[in-house]
Amino acid sequence: MGVSLRGKRGVPVGESRNVLAEIRRDLENYVGKRVRVRANKGRRRIVEREGTLEKTYPNLFVIKLDEEYQNRRLSYTYADLLTAMVEVSVYNGKERKKLDFSASSAS
User: Fold this and answer.
1) DSSP assigned state of 9
2) What is the CATH number of the domain that holds 90?
3) How far lies 66's CA from each of 12, 29, 98, in Å?
4) Has residue 107 been placed in a domain?
5) How far apart (Å, rounded) are the C-alpha atoms in residues 72 and 96?
6) pLDDT in tens, 46-104
7) How remote is the C-alpha of 63 from its chain's centroid?
8) What's the pTM value of the predicted model, to 2 decimals?
């Protein structure tokens, strides 16, 4: 008789960790690139900022904002990307490419 560990929404715990690790690996390809972040802060508050994807860590990633914010950094979790609370777009020259990690696109 095996024990099945399940997190919220019935997703096996190991699978959710794999998805977050995959998001991290994908995001690592853009370290040092110019990005635009759109974050839903709740109650109809949406914040958009531009900066550079500075570093990825096991549970979060850091974006260094442009000079006008005087070396300010923002950090978000990979789960924020998965739940679409945060959207990241990467600049490729003058064009912007939105990275889609939301759970609805994964299926």
Assistant:
1) G
2) 2.30.30.100
3) 39, 20, 19
4) no
5) 22
6) 999 999 999 999 999 999 998 776 789 999 999 999 998 999 999 988 888 998 887 65
7) 10
8) 0.76
Name the residue type at position 79. A
The C-alpha atoms of residue 25 and residue 33 are separated, in whole angstroms, by: 15
Give me 36's structure tokens.
Answer: 């635009």
3 located within any domain: no
* Residue 104, in any domain of the structure: no
Can you tell me whether residue 48 is helix, strand or coil? strand
**Closest among 58, 55, 59 to 33, alpha carbons compared:** 55
- In a domain, residue 1? The reply is no
Domain count, the chain: 1
How far apart are alpha carbons 96 and 79 in whole angstroms?
22
Note down the domain range covering 15.
Answer: 9-99
Burial of residue 37 (number of CB atoms within 10 Å: 0-12, 13-18, 19+): buried
